[in-house]
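Researcher: We plan to redesign the surface later, but first we want a full-length starting point. Tokens attached.
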């Protein structure tokens, strides 16, 4: 999904700069973008493709990418990965094994998860889990 997004964004930018002007995204796009976010929030653990998000939101790929990026400041793929990483952080902080956290958050395997998590957070998931565990509420006498 990430490669497809980048290609479509590049094509959109080239056409905007050198071709016919694109139609402006009308204010109603906000609802479609919210629907796209809702879909990703609810299905982050599944294998999601851009076509599914577009169908659910009712927008073409190029319109979704432009409107979403303008509205959220990130591409849909980056938004989805942020959801996955935030959920993974929550699971790891609860002591979940890395492989299980990877599968529950939609990553194809533990290696992909570890690489992406490390790039996104700046720490390996195992290190993050250790830090979160030593700084969790039970360490400070706070009950959950």
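Model: Full-length starting sequence:
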């Amino acid at each position: 999904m990430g490669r497809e997004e980048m290609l479509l964004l590049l094509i959109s930018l080239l056409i905007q700069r050198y071709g016919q002007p694109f139609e402006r995204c009308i204010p109603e796009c906000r609802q479609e973008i919210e629907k796209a976010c809702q879909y990703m929030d609810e299905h982050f653990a599944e294998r999601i493709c851009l076509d599914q998000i577009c169908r659910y939101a009712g927008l073409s790929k190029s319109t979704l990418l432009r409107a979403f990026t303008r509205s959220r400041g990130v591409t849909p793929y980056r938004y989805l990965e942020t959801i996955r990483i935030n959920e993974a952080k929550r699971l790891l902080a609860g002591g979940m094994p890395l492989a299980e956290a990877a599968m529950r958050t939609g990553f194809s395997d533990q290696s992909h998860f570890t690489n992406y998590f490390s790039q996104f957070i700046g720490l390996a998931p195992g290190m993050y889990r250790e830090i979160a565990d030593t700084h969790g509420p039970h360490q400070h006498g706070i009950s959950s």
